[in-house]
Design goal:
One of its GO terms (cellular component) is membrane. By secondary structure, the chain is mainly alpha-helical. It has 22 helices and 12 strands. A hairpin with a 3-residue loop joins strand 11 and strand 12. The chain starts with a strand and ends in a 21-residue tail after the last helix.
Amino acid sequence: MVTQSGGGAGSGGEDDIDKTSAKHLLDSIGKIVHDQVKTEAEKRGKGLQGDLKEARFPHRNGFDHPQQNPCLFDHTRDTNVTSGGGKENPCYGRQGVRFSDTKGAKCYSYGIKGNDSSIGFCAPYRRLHLCVQNLEQIKPDQITSTHNLLVDVLLAAKYEGQSITRDYPKYQATYGYSPSEICTMLARSFADIGDIIRGKDLYRRDSRTDKLEENLRKIFGIIYGKLKDAQSHYSDTTNFYQLREDWWALNRKEVWKAITCEAGGGNRYFRQTCNGGKSSTPNKCRCDGANTDPPTYFDYVPQYLRWLQEWAEDFCRKKKIKVENVKKSCRGENGKDKYCSRNGYDCTKTKRAIGKLRYGNRCIDCLYACNPYVHWIDNQKEQFDKQVKKYTDEINGTSTSSRAKRAATTTNYEDYESKFYEKLKNDGYGTLEGFLGLLNKENVCKEVQDDKGGTISFENVNSRGGGSGAASGGGTSDASGTNNASQGTFYRSEYCQPCPLCGVKKKSDGSGGNTEWERKDSMDKCPSINLYRPKDDKVGTTIKILKSGENQKEIENKLNAFCQTQNGNSGKASSIGSGDCGRNSDSSLCEPWQCYQSDQLEKVGGGEEDEDDHDYDQLVNNSGGLCILENKNKKNESGNNSSNEPDQFQKTFHDFFFYWVAHMLKDSIHWRTRRLKSCISNGKQTKCRNGCHGKCDCFLKWVEQKEKEEWTKIRNHFYNQKNLNVGADFINLPPYYILEQNLQEEFLKGDSEEKSAQDKQNSLDAQEIKHLKEIKKLLDEEKKKNQEEADGAVSFGAFGTGPNHA
């Protein structure tokens, strides 16, 4: 057994394989493969090692040779590229943000080799903007020797390292600092550059053809033609894979020097690999003394496994922060102040089993935090599924990408990937479960310790297909890893769930400082309480709400169904204005609420007093009355789940109003950021682009529905309250002003800019903040405009103005 020190003790084995975590395993096997490849390359590759002193630029004016220190390289002079227009800059056209809080890996079916819609590789966000533009711009005839090629590879490495070291600290400010992370990130980009040079890169950017790879084949063809004894060593004269692998093995240490030019003094690699594995990198992610080899061996790990391990780390790092912020939004700053549901209900007062639904206590924060979190975690599960289904085929060489590589060469040489996978299988990681078990041991994954957010256990996720075992379809639960608390890697968290059937309360009523919540999940914990009903001759106000859904997928599906009806594609006539939410026979999109003023209601007697009856009665009597939704989906047949549901749902008008605003905002943001994002051209006039008129027309009908059928009636009901101006705070104030104060208190209180970066992760996303600020601006403008006349109108975005009231 070998013990690795430095980045944490770990058990080794034969050939010094480190099993501390998946990252350690990959790097230690990579070293073994590297040592084999380098020995073979030194025998074959005489004439492949580059030397900057020998490099010349015969096609450039003004500079005929590069500087000798790659850390001083300037893209305007130290390059073979003559394209102009700034394209000699390796980072030209790349995003400056290399690590994103809101964006992640991409699993394109068209931009990554071997991918389809259900299975494939996921390129890390860092890889999407790798700084190699200069390599794409080189004209093959400009490369006259291996020395010339080295210049532009070093230039790309220098600029890539600069991009990583300058941007990553901003990411660390949110997710925490570790002195090994910069070196690890540099090692990952170093390995991706190595894959590009060797023809192993899976990513093709946005093109179905790989122009960079075509360029490199031609360049290595030129180098091949100038090598003595090339034909006796390299039989592949089409792709030059073996030649390219030897070139990388003999020049990689110079590339590492270039990519670490701006690495800081305190940065060290996560494993002790210097001086025969006896010491860490002392500074700048480099070994010292006579040992000039790079400390990393990620470049001898197949790209698929590197990307999967990087994806897992990024997932764990983000999940930890996101769960912490969902917890704050749904349980309060200290995690114990309140108990809210993902629908925005206050579970201390909501009793779903008897139809009593309550907002308040800033539970709207939970709605806005959970919506993006659930969308994110579900998307992460999809990405995980796609990747793990590749494992068995990849290590056995039977995947599409592996077959394509073999078919592209006429040689039978064993490349570094084949060597790696053979070693991996021989060391006991031929099955998916063993490797996924090591992913759990990454430090950032072990730090995800909130069991209510879901415990990390990658090997127990049911991904359906791709081999044997739980992670590939042999799990015991169909919901494994998604919304099942016992298989919680991709659990949506306990914080983003509906209220228990009969609500919650503090244990022992909170006496003695008890802050634990008692969930009331069974029907027998819901007493028959005194709800309200309309008086015999009172019909109230009918407000039929087009409610699309709670999460992104549900919103998308229901708006699709709405648009099909509006555009005449469903076989049903459009019916905006008829009061059925645009659907003649299908009422699944519509919630027909009846809203009553307090004098139109009476209390149903015979029940017990509920603990919040006083507050509830105050809201009914002084805040616009009550709204009731009949439960038309209830079926009373024995054994039917809906038979346990209430006959109707009740919301105070106060809660109904905020419920409507919250869902209108979610739908509106979906329209603007997803459905119409590519359809609107913003100039002096906002126009709908060609080919999008069906979507734009549907949006206008959605706005018409919201304005005429919903907002107008809600606003009028608000204005018609008997006690609207009662109370010292609101006496003699116009209705529009009171409406504004209510909206600001519930939706705009506590500007997100005042919160820390961690708080922003799962609260309102950037588009929601922008949208809410626009509403606030409109309200502020309306307030100024109406200062001159107390009976002025209120503007609510696109939804018109209010009626005049004396």
